[in-house]
């Protein structure tokens, strides 16, 4: 396999874990993804003994969206060619806080612009972002006129920590648990609550001179306590950009989801100076509002590695291995217990995680399509 010449410039792939705590199973998956990226880039996966710097020429796999461009520059991260993930100039830009405008007269952090939400409004659900408790109360009163609303902590993943309220007094116990300084830094989302929701994923990855784009769905599974949690993603991945994806015979709601993801991304590129991302993923919800009207909108972005990244990696490798390949179906699977793995499974983790118990995480590639 001949790798693109631009990719030989990286000395190694380095995992950049910026979180206070990373569960064992996630760390194992991150290391496996770093191995795969190193193969794509034609360089080793290294764990440096000394703190890395710009002179090292590394390609990084951050565990989160980077929010300090000056610090990133000292590592040599300046463009999407330097990392698998993304970088933004302000902390709130890394979260779902950007997905809604402020209520009138609200306080806001440095770098905030209403321009993003104005440009992306047709791709958004009805809601507000706030950075203070008083603004949260005002936003809740506005939204509750039309029905229930969903309170969404912006740093939580997979829907954790979200609460639906139907009256203003139900907000107070939730606000009481929130730290004012953290709220001022990261924000809080209040959004119309939808029923009968379907969630779609639209995304794109650009690594080693390859671009692939996808649409897909997420599955739920039950953990050892019987709680429904993320169970994997099923993706249709094409070689090329979003326009290539739109050339597929998509159902109307999927075509709308792709177009909404594109509108959201274009607004980010225009209104967030310094935004770069080689991995872009958007969750798009489709459901009914309190009046029974069908609504669709981007819930949040992920400009970092995520639950679907093992499938993205396998798709990238398949495209690198076979230049004639145009489309694949790739999936990730998270199964509690010790299942019999499919023969085509690539195992990313299997073990007894100290927090979650026995868990298996694997990915598969199916349905190779060479037709143009």
Walk me through the structure.
With 372 residues, the chain is of the alpha+beta class. Helices cover 25% and strands 32% of the residues. The chain has three domains: 5-90; 95-124 and 126-193, Dna Ligase, domain 1 (2-Layer Sandwich); 196-369, 2-Layer Sandwich (D-amino Acid Aminotransferase, Chain A, domain 1). The longest helix has 20 residues, at 252-271. It is globular and about 55 Å long. Mean pLDDT is 92; it is low at 1-7.
Number of domains: 3
Helical/strand content category: alpha+beta
Shape: globular
Which topology of the largest domain does CATH recognise? D-amino Acid Aminotransferase, Chain A, domain 1
Count of DSSP E strands?
A: 16
From the coordinates shown, what is the CATH architecture of the largest domain? 2-Layer Sandwich
Span between termini: 22 Å
Helix-strand pattern, N to C? EHEHEHEHEEHHEEEEHHEEEHEEE
| Strand order, largest beta sheet | 13-12-8-9-10-14-16-15
Tell me the Rg in angstroms. 21 Å
Largest sheet: 8 strands, antiparallel
Mean pLDDT: 92
Short description:
The protein is of the alpha+beta class and 372 residues long.
Give a topology summary.
Layout: E1 12-16, H1 24-41, E2 58-62, H2 69-75, E3 86-87, H3 115-120, E4 127-130, H4 133-144, E5 149-153, E6 163-165, H5 171-176, H6 180-186, E7 188-192, E8 195-207, E9 210-222, E10 228-239, H7 242-246, H8 252-271, E11 276-277, E12 279-288, E13 294-302, H9 309-321, E14 327-336, E15 346-353, E16 357-369
Parallel strand pairs: 1-2
Antiparallel strand pairs: 3-11, 4-7, 5-6, 5-7, 8-9, 8-12, 9-10, 10-14, 12-13, 14-16, 15-16
Helix pairs in contact: 1-9
